[in-house]
Design a protein that fits this description.
With 237 residues, this protein is an all-beta fold. The chain folds into three domains: 91 residues, no CATH class; 67 residues, Thrombin, subunit H (Beta Barrel); 61 residues, Thrombin, subunit H (Beta Barrel). It is 0% helix and 39% strand. It contains no helices and 22 strands.
Length: 237
């Protein structure tokens, strides 16, 4: 049995293989297995990680444990957050008010002053600037909210991608990102330029060349990457 074939039960209290329980033990809560084959669980002793045989990775217990990403897992105890290595050891000495999950070997964290920034796998911050908020890296870029309240994209060195700022912003997906200015939501390229002139009350990222949007009068539509209407979804004219 491969750990990749182990599923979480509908009640999130045990693990299943081909619909049958893998371990005799039933937990208070479980999350799915992630590479390198470890899963977060919680029982009456606390929260921890197990391997594919159901063995505890370490003796320590936490209030919350989360899945492994880039061979690092977030744990929480006594108001303090940090990451563990795949051996179950602390990945770095510092603790934070919150930690995210590593993506592309970088992770957003919040310090005791409620400032956000990104750290590398050894817990070192990758730039000196603090942000109101920051998200995960994807394809080499992350969204951050600066002290002036506006959002921008940064690269893995912390530099602004294109010098543009927006009221709100999404990550890049297939070369385009969602963005919001005073007129509403739209899609931008990596230069920070709108790829069409229209604005919407809400939008989704492009999915194989098409995106779901909602107009300001509440109508759902599908548009293409030129901003052209492809399909009306609500039957309204």
């Amino acid at each position: 049995m491969n750990w990749q074939d182990i599923k979480v039960s509908a009640d999130s209290k045990q693990f299943l293989f081909e619909g049958k329980p893998v371990f005799e033990k039933k937990f208070i809560e479980v999350l799915k297995f992630h590479p390198p084959g470890l899963a977060p669980v919680k029982d009456e002793t606390g929260a921890y990680h197990i391997d594919g045989s159901g063995n505890s990775l370490y003796s320590e217990r936490y209030s919350r444990t989360f899945g492994y990403y880039c061979n690092r897992a977030t744990v929480f105890k006594d108001g303090s957050w940090h990451h563990l290595t795949e051996q179950g050891q602390r990945a770095y000495a510092d603790s934070f008010s919150w930690t995210g999950n590593y993506q592309e070997n970088l992770c957003p964290v919040r310090d005791r002053n409620n400032s956000y920034f990104h750290i590398d796998l050894t817990g070192n911050r990758i730039y000196s600037e603090n942000y109101i908020y920051c998200g995960d890296f994807k394809d080499g870029y992350a969204c951050v909210r600066a002290s002036n309240g506006f959002y921008r994209h940064i690269d893995i060195k912390g530099a602004s991608l294109n010098g543009k700022e927006f009221i709100d912003l999404g990550i890049f997906h297939k070369n385009f990102a969602t963005a919001k200015d005073g007129g509403g939501w739209f899609h931008i390229d990596k230069r920070g330029e709108a790829i069409y002139s229209d604005r919407f009350s809400s939008i989704e990222p492009f999915y194989n060349g098409l995106a779901l949007v909602e107009t300001f009068n509440g109508r759902k539509q599908i548009i293409d990457e030129a901003g052209s209407l492809v399909l009306k979804l609500d039957g309204k004219v």
